[in-house]
Amino acid sequence: MRRLTKVDLLLFAVVLIWGAFFSVVKYTLQEIGPLAFATARFLGGSIFLLALVYLVEGKPVIRREDWLRVGVVGILGIGFYQILFTLGIYYTTASNSSLLIATGPIFTLLFAALFREERIVPLQIAGILVSFLGVAMIVGAQSGGLTLSVEHLKGDLFTLTCAAINGLCVVISKRPLKRHSALRLMTVSFVLGTLSMLPFTWRALLYQPWAHLSLNSWLGLGYSSFIAAGLGYALWFWAVGEIGATRTMVYNYLIPVVAVGVAVLTLREHFGPLQALGALVVFVGIALARLTPPSRIPRDRRAEAALIIGGSDDD
Known about the structure:
The chain is mostly helical. The protein has one domain (6-292). The protein has helices at 6-28, 34-56, 67-91, 94-101, 104-114, 122-143, 150-172, 182-207, 215-243, 245-249, 254-266, 273-290, 302-308. α2 crosses α9 (215-243), α4 runs antiparallel to α6 (122-143) and α8 (182-207) packs antiparallel against α9 (215-243). The longest helix is centred in the C-terminal third of the chain and has 29 residues, at 215-243. 48% of the residues are buried.
């Protein structure tokens, strides 16, 4: 049995942060419009990360060969993802959205295999599918499961596109993470993502009555910006660089478990036996995926990896 590592513990911390995020957002959106909230959240996260990276590393410079991948992560994975995710929730049910977003690790597996970024083994596939089954059990017990209708089709497609974007961006970020810290990568990505959102959301941001927000809404926005967005994304992509995209993304399945648990405690939502069984199934799937050894570096990349860590073939 593989022991828990520092990476596992930090990923559990991110899961707790992002699991609580759903209840925080549900409360905060009572006073802030969805597009204004999403834009303000990432604007605040960008400012937080810029200040942090300047204090820790200095100027966030990205190498020229990594700009394409970092640009895709920022513009597509943060900017357009947030817009599509908001529209997806608007046009479909919360149940559909939860289940379709949970397909993200499956897309990660597919893209990792397609781009030959990681070595995929059957145990990883089994773990991802088992965890997805657990999420389906939790969501199904909570809100009646997936509903298929023409009325929800647009929202379902938006949400499924978000899951695919998430899976793609986690995979393509792995190579830049060999040359740049997760903090630097996410800082540049957040700035690019926020700038790409503004042409579509600036009106919502401008006309939001910020002066009339309660203290709790400001606290919710602060939590969403600095902790859930800034700190959470930096730790998540640091884990991608440490243990790989596929093995990191399987922790996504724990987020609905925590989200339901926090909602039960704070919003007094229902938690029944089927949900408890689903949570157990999610843990089993994660354990299966984590039993796999770290991905090996292909032979043609060993020299590059040696240069990255400061060594050489002659040392």
